[in-house]
Design goal:
This protein has twelve helices and twelve strands. It has 324 residues and is α+β, with helices and mostly antiparallel strands. The strands form three sheets. It has a five-stranded antiparallel β-sheet. Strands 9-10-11-12 form a four-stranded antiparallel β-sheet. α5 packs antiparallel against α8. It binds flavin-adenine dinucleotide and iron/sulfur cluster.
Length: 324
C-alpha cells in the first residue's frame, strides 16, 4: 500500500472542501482499502465521511429515501423496506456476507469498481485501470464478463446487486458538491464503457452522494431479486433479475425488470416490460416476455452460457413474483 494522509470530516462543508481539493472519500472502506492494498487505487488523501448526517431511512407516500451512509444490513433489515420494497432488501441480503454488509454503505456500494480479475491485477492490460493500455479480458478468461453493453475497450460486468433493484424501480441519486446539488436517475448514473471505460459513474470530482430516492408505486410490494451464482454466498452474480409487477384483476398493469451479472451497467429490459403490460399473468406470458431478455446480447469466447442463463433467470423470477 502506498502512503496516504487520513482525516475525518466533522461537517459536510469540511468534507466538500477537502473533496474539491483532491481528497478521496471513504465510508465503510470495504472496497477502497482492498484496492489500495492491491495498489489498483493510490489516493494520497483520504477523508472519512462517517461523521456526516446521511444516515436516515424514510418510507412515506412519496417513496423510500435512504442516506448514503446507511449500512447495507441496516437497510435490508428495515421492516418497511422489507414489506414495501422487498426487491431492495433481497438485493442487499444476497450481496457479500454478513460482516461486510454491516460495514458497507449504500453510497460506497454504488461506487464499487469492477470485479474483473484483470482490473485487480496491476500487471495486466486494463483500460479501466490504465486508460489506453488495452483489455486482457477480451481474448482471455472472459467467463464472468458481460454479454450486453460492452465495447471493444471493456466488457466487465457491473458488480452491484442493489443497483439492479434501484434501476428497476426508477431510483434517483442525490449528489452534492461545492457547486450545489444534483439529482441523477440511477439508470443514467452508471456509464457504459464506450471509449472511456475508466469513467464508471456520473460523479464529478469532489462530489458526494448524499441519498438515494425510490419513488412509491403500485408495483413495489410485489417485487423481488433473484441472483444466480457459482456458490450460494460470498459471490457475485452470473445473472440476476429484479422484477416488480403491478397486477390488478387478472391483468398486468405495470412491469419493471432489470438484470445484473450480464451487462456493463445495471440493465433495464424495456422490451420484456412491454411484452408484460396488458397481458394476463401466467406461464405463457412469462415465457414469451423472458424470450426477449437477451435481445442484442453478444457472447465472448467463454460466456455464451450467459445468454440462455439470462433468459431463464428472468423467466424464473417472473414466475416467482407473478405466479403461475
Ligand atoms: C468479499 C466481497 C464480496 C462482495 N460481494 C458483493 C456482492 O455480492 N454484491 C454487491 O453488490 N457488492 C458486493 N461487494 C461490494 C460491497 O458491497 C462494497 O464493498 C461496499 O458496498 C462498499 O461500500 P463501502 O462503504 O465500504 O465503500 P468504500 O470502500 O468506503 O468506498 C468505495 C468507493 O465509494 C466512494 N464513496 C463512498 N461513499 C461515498 C459517497 N457518499 N459519495 C461519493 N463517493 C463515495 C469512495 O470514495 C470509494 O471510491 C463485495 C465486497 C467484498 C469485499
Ligand atoms: S474487461 Fe474492463 S475491467 Fe476487465 S481488463 Fe478489460 S478493460 Fe479492464
Amino acid at each position: 500500500m502506498y502512503p496516504f494522509v487520513f482525516s475525518k470530516a466533522a461537517t459536510e462543508s469540511a468534507a466538500l472542501a477537502a473533496g474539491a481539493d483532491g481528497a478521496r472519500y471513504i465510508a465503510g472502506g470495504t472496497t477502497l482499502v482492498d484496492l489500495m492494498r492491491e495498489t489498483v487505487e493510490r489516493p494520497s488523501r483520504l477523508v472519512d465521511i462517517n461523521g456526516l448526517p446521511y444516515r436516515d431511512i424514510t418510507v412515506s407516500s412519496e417513496g423510500l429515501r435512504v442516506g448514503a451512509l446507511v449500512r447495507m444490513s441496516e437497510l435490508a433489515a428495515h421492516p418497511d423496506v422489507r414489506s414495501h420494497y422487498p426487491v431492495i432488501a433481497q438485493s442487499l441480503e444476497l450481496g457479500a456476507f454478513a460482516q461486510l454488509r454491516n460495514m458497507a454503505s449504500i453510497g460506497g456500494n454504488l461506487m464499487q469498481r469492477p470485479r474483473c480479475p484483470y482490473f485487480r491485477d496491476v500487471y495486466s492490460a486494463c483500460n479501466r485501470r490504465s486508460p489506453g493500455t488495452g483489455c486482457d479480458a477480451v481474448d482471455g478468461d472472459n467467463r464472468m464478463q458481460a454479454v450486453l453493453g460492452g465495447s471493444a475497450h471493456c466488457v466487465a460486468t457491473h458488480p452491484s446487486d442493489l443497483a439492479v433493484a434501484l434501476v428497476a424501480l426508477d431510483a434517483v441519486v442525490h449528489l452534492r458538491s461545492t457547486a450545489g446539488t444534483r439529482a441523477v436517475p440511477v439508470a443514467e448514473f452508471f456509464l457504459r464503457p464506450g471509449n472511456t471505460p475508466h469513467r464508471e459513474q456520473d460523479l464529478r470530482p469532489g462530489e458526494l452522494i448524499t441519498s438515494v430516492h425510490v419513488p412509491a408505486g403500485p408495483h413495489t410490494r410485489r417485487s423481488g431479486y433473484l441472483k444466480v451464482r457459482d456458490r450460494q454466498s460470498y459471490e457475485f452474480a452470473l445473472a440476476s433479475a429484479a422484477v416488480a409487477l403491478d397486477i390488478r384483476g387478472s391483468v398486468i398493469r405495470g412491469a419493471r425488470v432489470a438484470v445484473g451479472g450480464v451487462a456493463t451497467v445495471p440493465w433495464r429490459l424495456p422490451r420484456v416490460e412491454r411484452a408484460l403490460v396488458g397481458a394476463r399473468p401466467g406461464r405463457a406470458t412469462w415465457t414469451e416476455a423472458a424470450a426477449r431478455a437477451a435481445d442484442g446480447a453478444r457472447a465472448l469466447s467463454g460466456n455464451a452460457f450467459k445468454i440462455r442463463l439470462l433468459e431463464r433467470t428472468v423467466r424464473r423470477q417472473l414466475t416467482t413474483i407473478g405466479g403461475l
